[in-house]
Design a protein that fits this description.
Elements lengths: L2 H22 L16 H13 L4 H12 L30 E7 L2 E6 L2 E4 L10 E5 L3 E7 L6 E7 L17
Antiparallel strand pairs: 1-2, 2-3, 4-5, 5-6
Length: 175
């Protein structure tokens, strides 16, 4: 065995012993200097008191109001990377069926084909009351305002490719 291998085994043995000692001794107490993992009610009350005493601008107060109104206990609510105030409930099948089948670029203008009709960004769709907000090669982002609550709801419609539209080219080699 080489000298460096002996040193490496010695360091590993020391780490193993220290780990075993930490595992066996004082399992109920946190290590000195370790941060507490729980949040106490006093901490929450202190944060609320500080927010109430702070002088907020109208924009900050508006943002805090939105956060408070739309708060949920699920931290992963509204996922898939779409930034929105709410997800559209029509995705569950009770709204119009929307099919994004592709896009085309004419000069500097980009059009998305939704349900067989071409729409540019900002255009309102013929069904569902949606407005086209963004066009990507893999999806489109649609937005509409809920009439009862006034909230803006977004819907991300993925690209649906039809196998019948694909062009198949076969190369045949002559012998």
């Amino acid at each position: 065995m080489q000298k460096r291998e002996k040193k490496l085994l010695g360091v590993m043995a020391v780490v193993l012993m220290v780990g075993a000692y930490m595992y066996v001794s004082a399992p109920g107490k946190p290590a000195p200097g370790a941060a507490a993992t729980g949040v106490s009610k006093g901490m929450v009350d202190e944060v609320v008191k500080n927010i109430d005493q702070a002088k907020l601008t109208s924009l900050q107060a508006y943002r805090l109001g939105l956060l408070a109104d739309n708060a949920t206990s699920n931290p992963f609510y509204g996922g898939q990377g779409a930034a929105s105030l709410g997800e559209d409930s029509s995705q569950d099948g009770d709204g119009p069926e929307l099919v994004y089948s592709g896009y085309m670029k004419l000069g500097y203008k980009l059009f998305a084909v939704v349900n067989g009709v071409e729409y540019a960004v900002g255009d309102e769709l013929a069904e569902g009351g949606f407005r086209l907000q963004a066009i990507d090669k893999n999806f489109v982002v649609l937005e509409r305002t809920d009439g009862s609550t006034g909230r803006k709801l977004t819907r991300r419609v993925p690209l649906v490719e039809d196998d019948m539209d694909k062009i198949r080219i076969r190369v045949v080699k002559k012998r």
